[in-house]
Amino acid sequence: MRRLISIVLLSFYLVSTTELYQLLKIPVLIEHFLQHKEQNKNITLIDFLKMHYDHPVKDADYQTDQKLPFVSHASLLSVVFIINPSVDFHFTDKTYNSPGIKKTFYKSVLYNKEILNSIWEPPKFYKS
């Protein structure tokens, strides 16, 4: 049972993240080949594949042709992990800032008290 679940989960993963999902379109290929076989009794499978994959043309059944396997591709889920071997981690001693040295932001040149306090005021409308 465990083996069956593993195979099913692996199959779901491969079908959803690779081009393997295209194999699920094989019944469409067979059905479309049989439609062409009804129209032309002399067509072979090789001729059919050449017609749709080697030199595709826009004809009356173009929409069906686009549903064939490996004709159109969708963007798949791509997850890439890169391990950079040159990354080094260095630990340094913890530095201690004494409580006597305090940097206050409000004395900074970048601080503008008027702008920050105007946030709490209601909007002003000017009539011209």
Q: Report how far the terminal alpha carbons are from each other.
A: 80 Å
Shape: elongated
Q: What structural category arises from helix and sheet content?
A: mainly alpha
Helix content: 25-40%
Low-pLDDT sequence parts = none
Overall description:
The chain is mainly α and 128 residues long. It is built from five helices and no strands. The termini are far apart. 38% of the residues lie in helices and 0% in strands. The longest helix has 16 residues, at 2-17. The radius of gyration is 33 Å and the shape is elongated. The model has no long low-confidence stretch (mean pLDDT 78).
Tag the structure with descriptive keywords.
128 residues, elongated, mainly alpha
Give a nutshell description of this structure.
This protein has helices at 2-17, 26-39, 45-54, 62-65, 113-117.
Task: Explain the layout of strands and helices.
Layout: H1 2-17, H2 26-39, H3 45-54, H4 62-65, H5 113-117
